[in-house]
Each structure stands twice: as C-alpha cells, then as structure tokens.
Amino acid sequence: MTNSFMSNRRDAIKAMLAISAAGALAACKAGGEANDAAQPRGLVGGPKLTASEMALVGALAQTIIPKTETAGAVEAGVPAVLQTLFTEWGDDNYRMYWREGLKNLEQHFLQTGGQNFAKMVPSQQANLLGKYDAKAYAESGFDNFYKDMKSTIATAYYMSEPGATEELAYEPVPGEFKGCVPLSDQPKTWAT
C-alpha cells in the first residue's frame, strides 16, 4: 500500500510540475520573452569604434592612468570596456557625442603635437594631455567631453579587478571596525 501511495504521490508531483512549467512558459510566450530568450544574441548595439578611435582611446587611457607598480588602464581592460559601452550601451546620440569628442581631441593633438596622439612618445603624450587637462578643468565649459571621458576611464579602471584590488586597498572580508583611524595609517582609499 505504501508503494502505491508513493507512486501516486510522485505522479501527482510530476503532474503539478508539468502544469506549472507549462503555465510559466505560456505566460512568457504571451509576453514575448520566451521567443527573445531563444534567439541567439550577437552584439546588440550599433557600430564599434574604429581602429584609429580605439588607438586614441587606448593612448588616452594609458596616459591618464599609466602602468606603475600596479596595472595601468590598458592592462585593466579599460579600452575594451569603453568599446562595449559605445557598442552595446550607448544610443546614437551617445555614439555621436563620443565620435565628435574623439575627433576634436585628435585634431587638437595633431595641431599641437604634429601627429596622431597614439603615435607620440609617452612623454609627449603626458605633456600635451597635461596641458589640455589643466585647460579643460580651468575654463568652465571647455570640452565637457574630455571631462566625461576621463571620468568614464577612471570609473572603468576602478571597477576592474586590478583597479579595485591592486590600486585600492582591498580586503574581501574586512576585519573589525575602527571608527577613528589617523589618515597616516591608511595609505590607500578602500574598495570595500
């Protein structure tokens, strides 16, 4: 009698699961979600940054956050993150803003440095970008794109594993809480 009861119980549970699954799939299908999920996905967004734009982005990122005893922006994968934002996240206005901003930066560096920024030696890149950076932050409204780009580079860097674990002090499970710690005891900002 027990075996009969267990068999019937198992059959009943299987039937309930089948009915629940069928109902869930039908609800998804009605909302269009089941079809969308079944389709293979490639890149969602629009066009990618061109090779010359990526070279400029990489050179700018590496100049803004260079490799020292910790990974630089390029080693942390910042250019790839910016490419993903451009391709998969940004709309047409965002893409136009970035393309126009990068074009204006490249034109400026061609005029002041005589060649593409990515082809300059690092010391020349640092010198020209330092002057541009000082002007961008000194003059209100001067090249807001540059400030946005620099902020995006810094955000992408500190969200990366090397940026969060090597550049910032990182402790996966922080220890005890100390409310008042002299700043001299804390050489780095915390990522946690």
From TrEMBL:
The record's annotation in InterPro entries points to: Gluconate_2DH_su3 (IPR027056), TAT_signal (IPR006311)
- Segments traversing the membrane: none
Alphabetized, the UniProt keywords read: Signal
Q: Does the keyword Signal apply?
A: yes
Q: Which domain of life is it from?
A: Bacteria
Question: May I ask which residue range the UniProt record assigns to the signal sequence?
Answer: 1-26
Name of the protein this chain belongs to: Gluconate 2-dehydrogenase subunit 3
In its UniProt entry, the species of origin is given as Litorimonas cladophorae
